[in-house]
Every structure is written in C-alpha cells, then in structure tokens.
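Sample 3 of the quickstart, ligand zinc ion:
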Amino acid sequence: MITTTVWGSRGSIPVSGSQFHRYGGATTCLELTLQDAQGLTPSRILIDCGTGLTELGKEWGDRENQILLLQTHMHWDHIQGFPFFRPLFQPDAELTLWSTPREGCTFQEQLSQQMCRPAFPVGLDILPAQLNFVDLPESGEQQLGELTITWADVDHPSGNTAYRLDYRGFRVVFSGDVELPHSPSSRENLLALAENADLLILDAQYLPSEYPTRKGFGHSTPEDAVALALDAGVKQMLMTHHDPSHTDAQLDSKQALAQQLATGTDLCVRNAYDRLTVNLSETNAHKACA
Ligand SMILES: [Zn+2]
Ligand SMILES: [Zn+2]
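Result:
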C-alpha cells in the first residue's frame, strides 16, 4: 500500500483566512509512506519543502527520522518550509535530498543562500541533523529496494523535475510545477511518466479564463490537466498548486469544471487540499477517488 498525504496544496505564496478554510493555504509538500517497506526500500518519501513541510514537522510524532526528500525545483513556495522542519533540529535525523541543479546552482547552494545571515540565523552547516545532498541528472531512474523512482524534466521557469514512484504494483506521479501548453516535449515527458498511474498529482493553478494573461508563468489549467490524465490512462488525479487568490468557492468551481471534462471516462479527478490522504491498496486502487 502507498499512502499519500498532501501537506501543502497552494502555489506561489501561503494564504490563510476563512475564504481558504476548506482547501487550506500551505505551499507544496507531500508525504508518501510505503507499507511494509524493508531493507533498502525507504518507508517514507517527502516531496518538496513548501510551508506544508513545517506543518508536517509539527506532527512528526514517532515517525522514523531516516528521510528521503525529492525536490522538484527551488522556487520559494517549494523551499520556505525547510528551515522550520522540526526533524532538522534532531541529531538522530538523517535526510537524503535529491534534486537537479538549476541555473548552475545546486539544491544545497540554494538552501544555503536561504539559510544564512541576515535572512536566517541558522545555517545549514550547524543543523544537528545529517544532510546528504544528491545532484540528479535531468532525467533518470533508480531502484531502491522494491521502490523504483523515475524522474524527468518538465517546462517551468528554470526547470522542474517530475517524479514517478512505483512500489508493489502501485504508481504515484507528481508533476511539480508545469506549463503543459507551453512545451510539447515536456508534455511528452509527463505523459510517459504518468502512463497508467494509479494517482497523478498535477499542477492546475489557473482557471481557463486566467491563463491567457499568465502565459509563460509556468503553470497549467484544469483543461490541460484532464487532457493529459486521460491521454495517459490515469485512474485518479488530484489538481494542486492552487492559485493563492482562489477562494474555496472558486476552487469548487475549478473542480466542477474538471469533473465535467472527465464525465463519461474512468478518470476520477478532484482538488488536492491540505491534509488530504489517499490510500492505494489492493482493495481500493481501482475504485474512483478511493
Ligand atoms: Zn510553485
Ligand atoms: Zn515554481
């Protein structure tokens, strides 16, 4: 079984207030747990360090402190939760951080720039936790015990890495930020990664009416997301990276549009929201929105 928990589903900046209550306002962070993982197979994988990572850290509890973190890219909304992630301040914690260098800058360098005076008083070099940075090529595949991680670059300002995780017959894919109409080649990359995925979590930040004035910003619409999911044969999709201006009511409308577009197909589509958990198991993997 793979359990996916959304800790942050907002794009650009975190938001709060009664208009954002149901979907939440933390920026991108996901937690995936692999049931019965043994040996070289990691039992817990985190994706991205938006402010949702801080929320996860507050509720870390007795989770194991051996952590694999996959980073999609280094925009603020994907790194700002890192300095406040509670396990970083625990000496027994060990984080392995995968990322593709961007604009000649490694993830370690980017985090170091974020965590130095006068911006922040605690530098990476004095954190109690052990950090192991791994620089990835633009695309690749790696086996970790029973888990296979495949990644590819997709279109976004300064680039973005989409990840696929395959474990015991279940497939989960996270796009990160992507502008699907902007680059046919990145759509092809994502299409290949998402083929027959049990769960695809995909950027669908803008309403179709908003996209024309936001071309080149690096994000997609529900129309783009549903079309890709249908072409890839995806079973279940969560739309994420919600625009910070979108209220609960507007996100309801976005979801209704996507569900209308998927009517008559086997695709189940809905909005991600903070603290949403999706369990993929033998008994529910093929049920819509299980
Ligand atoms: Zn983003
Ligand atoms: Zn971005």
